[in-house]
Amino acid sequence: MKIESITLHVVSMPLKKPFVTHLQTVKDREGIIVEVRDSDGICGLGEGVAFSTPWYTEETVNTSYHMLKDVLIPLLNSKPFHHPEEIGKRFEAVRGNAMAKAALEMALWDLYARQQGDPLWNMIGGTRKEVLAGAVVGAGSVAGMVTQAEDLVKEGYQRIKLKISPGADVEIVKELRSHFPNLSLLADANSAYSLEDTPQLQALDEFGLEMIEQPLGIDDLVDHSLLQKEITTPICLDESIVTPHDMKSAIHLNSCGVVNIKLGRVGGYTSALEIYRLCRENGIKVWCGGMIEFGVSRAHNLTLSTLEGFSIPGDISSSSKYWEEDIITYPIVVRNGVVERLEGSGIGVELNRKRLSAVTQFKESFPSHEKHV
Question: Considering the entire predicted model, what is its pTM?
Fold first, then answer.
């Protein structure tokens, strides 16, 4: 692959409404847009999805930028490569920093597909023409969460994820289930519970939740295995699954029945595709989670979700759910609970340069030291 330059854009946009969890309230979303340009002017796009502070994982926008500039881009330039998978493997020499790795690796996959004139979904084996869409109801009052859910159901979303925490769980789920007896509901705990809370989590079993996501520690597999034996609701692991080795361990321990695969959390496509394969081989359901993304990452999520195993609606909401105006030329839109796959080459979206410029706080370009062939 012939890389001419890499450009990093640090962007910030206000959300239309604050996104609330028990861990953090997000009013403005920072992120990093990565452009990788080849010698023919073809541009691949990636997005760094770390938050401004380390409330979801230990990474932040600032640490990701440092890793991209000072470690990963020099490592990319260290020797020639022919396929983005090689970079995914090369980055394994760097510990952690999955979101920084993913931002650059995703851009390389997009570039590679555009160079071939092929949709990226086709190159990774995607077959779904339509992707099932879900959305998230942030934490708040019970009445407010019901109103949020009603609005989302009117927009056609087929699955609603509720943010819960100790003391703000059973009443919320009970009320939502009474309003929507047939809707696919899941609860996301963002590691708010411990094994001592098992009775409280058992109380959720009667409401027919599709899953409860990451109820225990972010780096735990053992306690989740113990909890799964005590509840009938399937456990979905999110933060606990970062590498394929994590996935193998979870399978061995029977820690979950579902995995939320986020490209940013697992370091990009190379790792995500291996985790997906392991899940398929072991009967574990998968779906694609969201990170309050801009349009670039949203398009990558849509690409990943075209794989046949992504049968659970993912967090692929319309661009308009979070943004007055996204940074891509044509927003991603959910219609009747689905999003049509994008048929253009690569991830199928282009940057809205005017909008990108308006929300960019800082940008920096790095020339390639070698013309890779």
Answer: 0.92
- pLDDT tens across 261-319, in order? 999 999 999 999 999 999 999 999 999 988 889 999 999 999 999 999 998 888 888 88
Its domain, for residue 323, covers: 122-340
- Across the range 67-90, mean pLDDT stands at 95
93 with 140, same domain: the answer is no
Are 112 and 159 in the same domain?
no
Which residue in 101, 163, 285, 321 is the catalytic one?
Answer: 163
Please tell me the total count of domains within the chain: 2
Same domain, 255 and 239: yes
The reply to whether 183 falls in a domain is yes
Annotated catalytic residue within 101, 161, 262, 321: 262
Q: Are 42 and 111 in contact (CB under 8 A)?
A: yes
324/361 same-domain check: no
Asked if 262 is an active-site residue, the reply is yes
Q: Which residue, 366, 320, 362, is CA-closest to 12?
A: 362
